Amino acid sequence: CGLWDLLQLDTFWQPRLPPSRKGTRWLNVLKTLAAYRLIDPGSEWRLHRHWFDHSAMGDLLGEDFAIAHSHTLYRCLDQLVVHKQALFSYLQERWRSLFDARFDVLLYDLTSTYFECDPPEHGKRTFGYSRDKRSDCVQVVIALIVTPEGFPLAYEVLPGNTLDKQTLTDFLAKIEAQYGKAERIWVMDRGIPTEATLALMRASDPPVHYLVGTPKGRLSKLEKSFLTKPWTMVREQVTVKLLDQDGELYVLALSAGRQDKERAMRRRRLKRLWKRLHELQRQTLSRDELLLKLGAAKKDAGRAYGLVHIQVPAPDEPVTAATFTFALNRKKLRLTRRREGRYLLRSNLTSDDPVQLWTWYIQLTEVEQAFKELKGDLSVRPIYHQLDRRIEAHIFVAFLAYCLQVTLKARLRPWRQDSPPAPSWRNSPPSRWSMSICPPPMDAP
Description:
Layout lengths: L1 H5 L2 H5 L12 H14 L4 H8 L5 H5 L8 H8 L6 H16 L5 E11 L22 E9 L5 E8 L8 H12 L5 E4 L6 H9 L5 E6 L1 H11 L5 E4 L2 E8 L2 E8 H27 L4 H15 L6 E4 L13 E4 L1 H10 L2 E6 L6 H9 L2 H11 L12 H29 L13 H8 L8
Parallel strand pairs: 1-4, 4-5
Antiparallel strand pairs: 1-2, 2-3, 5-11, 6-7, 7-8, 8-11, 9-10
Helix pairs in contact: 3-6, 3-16, 7-16, 11-12
């Protein structure tokens, strides 16, 4: 496999996965698992029952069907996770050597993956906030750090009920312990760091720099301070204002494109809500029925629901046009209009260029893209394993495949510089990526 050889993964894995006494070459089993996850992902059972026989892996590796036996695959999985930290340290050096990759800007985010199974009594599979909108299923949380180019630096599999704000402190310590102290810049979305964590980052020696999205509630407190500040254009249709306060730099960004999108969404939902309220006013309903229908309307309208002041009848009153009324909250609407398309960033990099700060924050989409590829191209779920160690090993193989994928993307980058980015590496010309994955033998015509 060309990508495997490019990263020199044999050098890393050979001393860690020696052949068994029965002659099972665990390295080749791992290559099979990684190639399967990258090329045609599915369950380990499907690899055993179907995929291996219908692929060329046996010929490429000089192996027979024995390495695809289900018990062999599972026993290989059991040997992998212990080497996770060493693997990422090794890959960091390989990417630095191959692509001059830099690891001073770190993008940090979390996602979840769910299991359609009965809730277990113990382990990491628990109920929690589901980013897949499957709150009816148990899940695990995956925390990931990548660079702006998509190179992963570390990840962790956490219990499904882990809150975002509970994770950052441990990750700061792990990265420092594994890679040493350095002036790194952590880029995160709002909700991940707490005030205590940010204070700890500012007080660190050397200071740990951060750039983080900030809830709009803080914008209310700073709005007057921003009024006298000038707008600076950072790119077409994006302008920013800077406010230096209490040793931190606040960046107020206004995106015309985002403003148009948010305004259109708000208008559409508000119009639909207004129409629905008129329909309810004409219906003959009991108070309980009205409240149920208003609850459904609130769910459909989202934040637009708060722009309407709704008066419902008292428990002992009938539902009439006089007892059930509604009116537009114009003061709140004006405030909402003024904030559409705006978002607030916060950093302790007080001397940095606002264009660079905004660019780093926008690159958070790279970690979101990594999650999309893990769930899409690499199909990290469904996960059928019942043991935590097997679940973590399954996710480990998916991340190993993602490392191969991001290496392929880095190799393809010179051919894609003059074209818009594709949503998936598979959209690149097959002649490029097929040769990178498995190049032809030297004597091929």
